[in-house]
Amino acid sequence: MILLPALLLLAPAASAPAPDVVVTSLRKLRIATQVDGGKVTGCHARVSSGDGGIDRAACAATVACFNGGVTQPEPLADCVEAKVAALVRERGGQ
Fold first, then answer.
1. Does pLDDT of 92 surpass 50?
2. Predicted TM-score (pTM) of this structure
C-alpha cells in the first residue's frame, strides 16, 4: 500500500527547518508500507524527501496513525500532518 502523508524532521530545536522548507520536502515524499492483518508492519520512503529525518518521521507517524485506525488516504495524510506539526512546534520550528 502506498500512502502520500506529510511529515516532519525530528531534529533538535536549534536545527529545526523553516516551515516552508519542510513543506517543500514533504511534497516530494512518497511512503510505501507493508500491511499485515490490518496493521502496518513495515514502512520506507519509496521516494525520499531528500532528508532522512523527515523520511523516518513520516514512517513513524504513518504507522501510528494507520495502526490507530486512520486508514483512508486523506484522513491518514491529515493525521500524519497533525503529528508532524505538533513535533515541529515542540522543537521550536513553529
1. yes
2. 0.70
